[in-house]
Amino acid sequence: MRNEYRIKFVTKVTADTLEELAGKLEGVNAAEFLKTANAFNASVKSEIPFNHTVLDGRGTEGIYPPKSNWAQALDTAPYEAYQTTCGITFTFGGLRTTAETGQVLNVHLKPIKGLYCAGEMLGGIFYFNYPSGTGLVSGSVFGRIAGHSAGNAALGK
Ligand SMILES: Cc1cc2nc3c(=O)[nH]c(=O)nc-3n(C[C@H](O)[C@H](O)[C@H](O)COP(=O)(O)OP(=O)(O)OC[C@H]3O[C@@H](n4cnc5c(N)ncnc54)[C@H](O)[C@@H]3O)c2cc1C
To answer: Whose CA is nearest to atom 30 of ligand 1?
Structure first.
């Protein structure tokens, strides 16, 4: 993983064995964790050499869902466990607004009174990918426009 994932402040637990690790996992059923980890380890097609540069076919068999490539048994200490969650980096879609005021347009492309939009709620900027840093730039630029317009509208300007 990239260095940003190796910072020392990250919350994780470390152990020399899977059994020890199981005992350190808060809120995790230790017996089920060990059963799952051992079943995964036993299912790896270890006769196929690992090669991360191609789809190496080193998958698993006998577990569900199966892993197709790059299966590596968890058999070398230190063992580390992290809590993970998913995040949505970009929505790649959203509401249509006027460019000048950030006011949301209805399906007939007429501005909806009192409704403004910026940030990830705003559509029409990116579709399949995005240049780095543009989420926050988009939020700042269109946020300022929308906020300014909303303030003006509130003042009756
Ligand atoms: C892992 C990750 C990495 C990223 N890295 C970058 C990066 O390096 N550079 C970059 O430019 N962009 C990055 N982005 C994208 C960027 O973070 C987003 O584009 C930006 O934060 C969107 O801002 P926003 O204000 O539109 O939405 P958000 O930041 O999602 O804010 C929406 C807010 O509304 C609140 N909310 C939701 N529903 C309600 C409700 N009913 N009532 C009241 N409040 C509510 C939420 O709690 C939240 O605080 C990253 C995103 C992710 C997930």
So the answer is: 120
Distances (CA, A) of 93 to 33, 121, 123, 124, 125: 39, 7, 4, 6, 8
What is this structure's pTM? 0.66
Q: Is 139 in the pocket of ligand 1 (CB under 6 A)?
A: yes
Ligand 1 atom nearest 122 alpha carbon: 26
Domain assignments of the chain as residue spans, ordered by start: 3-82, 103-154
Residue-wise pLDDT tens for the chain (157 aa)?
677 667 777 788 999 999 999 999 999 999 999 999 999 999 999 999 999 999 999 999 999 999 999 999 999 999 999 888 888 888 888 999 999 999 999 999 999 999 999 999 999 988 888 888 899 999 999 999 999 999 999 999 8
